[in-house]
Write the structure tokens for this entry.
Amino acid sequence: MTTMSVRVSGDVRPSKALHVGLWVVQGLVGVMFLAVGAMKATQPIAALADMLGWPAAVPAALVRVIGVAEILGALGLILPAATRIKPMLTPLAGIGLATAMLLAMTFHISRGEIGALPLPLVLGGLAAFVAWGRATKAPIAPR
């Protein structure tokens, strides 16, 4: 069926394709933010500055806070929905990660780093898609 939802006895259920697609995106985006966040939270600032450039321009504590926030956002994108414990946290994590990527894009634009925009644009868009999908079209029911 190509529709986004299926009507079953007066109920509207999300299509299986949308549900599966959201899980795939949640997993990919979650793993990406977990890896990047762990890198920012643990690697020496000098090594990060060599790789990314921008960590040399901000306080080291900010780089660490961003890394921890990305780790928590990644966990929030997956764990509440997977465990069905407080699954309404999943769209909130998506909003938080999308907002962080919007701020990252603003920061890179202010530094003239236009080449750095595709990754936060894609990750932010995918996080926003998860937030939208899990909040409106295919929410996860709590236990």
